[in-house]
Write a structure and sequence with these properties.
alpha+beta, 33 helices
Length: 931
């Protein structure tokens, strides 16, 4: 290695060495490029390309060698013998060409090694033969080890270099192959030069046949660069051209073969298939092998083929250069499709005809769509003629393009009156004249057109509601079209408007009587209050409630009740004056108001209402007298707002209903205070149980004949923390109105059952049920739970029901009582003799006891009628085998009366006042209790 370094450092011109290396690199890369291009050629083209590669690389290697030798400076005049020099060039070219040809013949390792040996050995032969052509004044000596070492250095790198050049395709592999070529050539050269020595000798014998160093440098450098430049340019241009051609071929092949929605194929001059793409296979069902050679008529129906349609199509294409047409074509399975066909003639560069190019597209779906469109057009024409809307289509020039028959029907216009081309203004003028029955004033027509054009010019059009006559209302809609015109539609909405008016009337009026309803009444009253406040006027608000309307419904049916309501409404409405309003809120509830300035006007208004409501009503052959309760409140004296005045009128009406013999009641401030007191008590009653304000007392019930205790009645008491003891007669109605009676009733029932379970004797406990409790869905379950929770046998519980409990819903009340009786609980009818239908009630349900109302026993001392009623009830009880208990026993005379008449039981102050649970065990038993 030191020898090689010394040779390069001291015996060579480094500039020429670099030049030689550049030429070697250029030669190697040119050879690799040409060899790679040779792979893409045909057989003949490949040989030519390999020969060019051998010539370029051989010449480049030879040039590298001699330029490097020119850089060798032995210090003696050097020349070159011409024949040996050119002989070394031939050896280099022949070795590289033959080696490249052999390497192309096979990819086996042995072949590649032999090819590398030929190339490397040829380079070595060129090197040493070329050194023999060097003439100096002396002679060369050679070191065998260096000479021998130079041979493998030239051959071994050639093996991978050939593999990379011939088998790979990437740019890095090409560069690496070129570098291996360079390494082999340069290592051979400098190793061989390092093994050479020069011994001085005599002068050259034949200087005339030698080439000078300068001449050699110019010749070799010029020839090498020119030749390599030509070779590289040729390779690059050839490669680009080939790549462009290959790319176009691939693109064309992909284009033709990749099209799957069109059949593309070639026909020979005789009309037989010579090529077949994927689209043709998909469309027609033939593979390429099956289709090539088929005649064109194979794709037609037998009838079309017999008629000569295929031959006629090719004849037209040949004569005119192109044929286009549509028709049914057939696949391999003989299914058909609608095809669009194009046949064009194909000629060579000299214009000679040699076949046809045929394109077939499946247009079946297009034809189906076209057929549907035609059918749709026909149907559209039919629909346009029969549609309920009138329709006119106008163009950008405001002229009529088309109209349907409905337009003529709506406006009594014939097709001749408004033919296509009629101006928009004339269409509307004629329509208005037909509707008006005569000419339309110009100003009226101008205003109509202005209104309609204001909608037509909008981007999204618009709709106008036009009342052409009192009985005809049209909805006219204008919608722009993309072309600049517009579509106008006419819809007759007369019935719709009438229906809307009916709905609006129904929303504000009572459906039965036609009077204003609550919503309408409130709206009108708000408006009147606002006006009266500005003008300093007064308004009388009247609340009206019919007195016996429910009785009429129950006795004669709802149909008769409806007739009565209608008659009363007509009377009140018929007698109403301007500024007066009569309304029905529902059921038997009416209301009215009147604006007035003089009290006489108010008195007249109230009198007319009383007359209308108290006059008997003839309905379904019956003469019925209802009567009514009226409450009057005044604005602004009795309230500043609608809610206040209406509420105060209702308070006055309730006072009138509660006062016997009084039909009309005016509001007084005390009424509001009483209502407020009831609301306060209702609120306090909700908290009475949690606060422990309620208690249950028990009044004894005894046998009249023996005086023995038979049971106790549970009585509820309330000690208010502020007002003290409050009577049940006062707070029980409040509890029923507020709904608290359900909570109170359950508490009393549970308390009574619990207390009775601890009594020393198995006495019965009687608990009162409110009518509201009786109609509650959970009553039966509540009774059962109370008995179970207290551990009280069911036969020891007696529930007392007043006759009024059956008024609201008798069927349901009796059903609930039967369920309770099935538990084993006794049922007593309380306050008997004061209801509406006592005998019917007794006949409807098997009561376990009848309790005579205390009013009869209290009045028995001085009233023969009261004693007669007591005897009758006792006789009724005996006949029905139902025990009778008399309430209100207060003295010995009353007791003797009950004994003489055979009464079973009694209760009252004579036998003891209601007492707490803890005192029951201390009460006397038997006759001693009467003392």
């Amino acid at each position: 290695m030191l020898r090689i370094y010394y040779c390069l450092q001291n015996e060579h011109d480094f500039r020429l060495v670099v030049l030689a290396g550049l030429i070697c690199i250029a030669a190697s890369m040119t050879a690799v490029t040409l060899l790679r291009h040779a792979r893409q050629e045909t057989a003949n083209g490949r040989v030519r390309r390999i020969c060019w590669a051998g010539l370029a690389s051989g010449f480049g290697i030879w040039a590298t060698h001699f330029i490097a030798v020119l850089g060798y400076d032995p210090g003696i005049v050097v020349g070159y013998e011409a024949r040996a020099t050119f002989l070394s060039l031939l050896v280099s070219v022949a070795a590289t060409t033959s080696g490249f040809l052999l390497a192309f013949s096979s990819r086996r390792l042995g072949t590649r090694c032999l090819a590398a040996a030929i190339v490397g050995g040829g380079v070595a032969a060129m090197h040493y033969l070329g050194m023999q052509a060097v003439e100096v004044a002396g002679h060369f000596t050679w070191s065998a080890p260096y000479v021998i070492a130079s041979l493998p250095l030239a051959i071994v790198p050639m093996i991978p270099a050939l593999g990379l050049a011939l088998d790979r395709r990437s740019v890095p592999s090409a560069i690496f192959a070129g570098l291996l070529f360079v390494a082999a050539i340069l290592s051979l050269h400098f190793t061989g030069m390092a093994g050479m020595g020069l011994m001085p000798d005599s002068e050259l014998e034949n200087p005339s046949t030698l080439l000078s160093s300068l001449s050699m440098a110019i010749a070799v450098a010029g020839a090498a660069f020119s030749f390599l430049a030509i070779g590289m340019m040729s390779a690059l241009l050839s490669g680009r051209a080939r790549a462009a051609i290959a790319a176009r071929e691939r693109e064309f092949r992909v284009l033709v073969q990749g099209i799957s929605d069109c059949a593309l194929y070639m026909l020979s001059a005789e009309g037989r298939v010579v090529s077949w793409n994927a689209g043709a296979q998909r469309l027609k069902g033939y593979t390429a092998a099956e289709a090539i050679g088929l005649a064109l008529p194979a794709f037609y129906s037998p009838e079309d083929a017999a008629a000569g349609l295929p031959a006629r199509a090719m004849e037209i294409a040949r004569r005119e250069g192109k044929f286009s047409g549509e028709g049914w074509r057939y696949r391999k399975d003989r299914s058909r499709f609608w095809a669009h066909v194009t046949i064009e003639t194909v000629r060579d560069a000299n214009g000679k005809f040699f076949g046809f190019a045929k394109i077939t597209r499946d247009m079946t779906r297009f034809k189906e769509d076209q057929d549907r469109l035609e059918a749709l057009t026909r149907n559209l024409d039919t629909a346009m003629s029969n549609m309920q809307h009138g329709l006119c289509l106008f163009g950008p020039d405001e002229r009529l393009i088309m109209s349907n028959a409905r337009v003529g029907t709506l406006f009594n216009l014939s097709h001749d009156d408004v033919p296509p081309g009629t101006l928009f203004a004339d269409v509307f003028r004629l329509a208005l004249e037909k509707r008006a029955g005569g000419p339309v004033p110009a100003e009226t027509l101008k205003e109509v057109l202005r209104r309609h054009r204001s909608y037509i010019t909008r981007p999204d059009g618009g709709t106008l509601i036009v009342s052409f006559t009192a009985a005809c209302t049209l909805s006219v809609a204008h919608r722009p079209t993309p072309e600049g015109g517009w579509v106008t539609t006419f819809e007759d909405i007369s019935e719709q408007r009438r229906a809307e008016q009916r709905i609006a009337h129904m929303a504000l009026h009572d459906g039965l009587t036609g009077l204003p309803n609550r919503v309408s009444y409130n709206d009108r009253l708000d408006a009147e209050i606002e006006t009266a406040a500005r003008n300093g006027e007064k308004i009388a608000v009247v609340g009206i409630d019919l007195d016996r309307f429910k009785d009429i419904n129950d006795s004669h049916g709802h149909a008769v009740g409806d007739l009565v309501l209608i008659e009363l409404a007509q009377r009140m409405r018929g007698g109403a004056l301007d500024g007066e309003c009569i309304a029905r809120f529902g059921g038997d509830e009416f209301a009215a108001f009147k604006c007035f300035t003089d009290d006489a006007e108010l008195a007249d208004f109230v009198a007319r209402l009383e007359t209308a409501l108290t006059t008997p009503v003839e309905a379904d052959g019956l003469s019925l007298l209802l009567g009514a309760s009226l409450g009057v409140a005044l604005f602004p004296a009795d309230g500043q707002t609608r809610e206040q005045v209406i509420n105060n009128a209702d308070l006055a009406m309730y006072r009138a209903k509660a006062t016997v013999g009084r039909q009309t009641c005016f509001y007084e401030p005390g009424m509001d205070e009483a209502a407020r007191t009831r609301r306060v008590l209702a609120n306090d009653l909700r908290e009475a149980i949690p606060r422990g304000e309620l208690s249950v007392l028990y009044q004894v019930q005894r046998s009249v004949s023996t005086g023995e205790v038979t049971g106790y009645e549970a009585l509820l008491r309330w000690r208010h923390p502020r007002d003290g003891w409050i009577s049940p007669a006062e707070f029980i109605p409040i509890a029923e109105e507020s709904g608290e009676i359900l909570q109170l009733g359950e508490w009393v029932l549970r308390t009574a059952c619990t207390d009775a379970a601890r009594w020393p004797e198995p006495w019965r406990v009687a608990v009162n049920l409110s009518p509201i409790q009786l109609l509650h869905v959970g009553l039966v379950e509540m009774v059962a739970n109370a008995l179970v929770s207290a551990g009280l046998p069911a036969h020891r519980l007696e529930l007392e029901i007043t006759e009024t409990a059956f008024v609201a819903d008798k069927v349901r009340a009796l059903h609930v009582l039967r369920q309770i009786k099935a538990l084993g609980v006794a049922i007593a009818i309380d306050d008997f003799g004061t209801g509406y239908s006592s005998l019917d009630t007794l006949n409807s349900f098997p009561f376990d006891k009848i309790k005579i109302d205390k009013s009869f026993l209290i009045e028995s001392d001085g009233s023969h009628q009261a004693r007669a009623i007591i005897r009758a009830v006792l006789a009724l009880g005996r006949s029905l085998e139902v025990p009778v208990l008399a309430e209100g026993l207060e003295n010995e005379g009353q007791l003797r009366l009950l004994e003489s008449e055979g009464c079973d039981e009694a209760q009252g102050y004579f036998w003891g006042r209601p007492a707490p649970h803890g005192t029951i065990a201390n009460q006397p038993i038997g006759k001693a209790a009467t003392a």
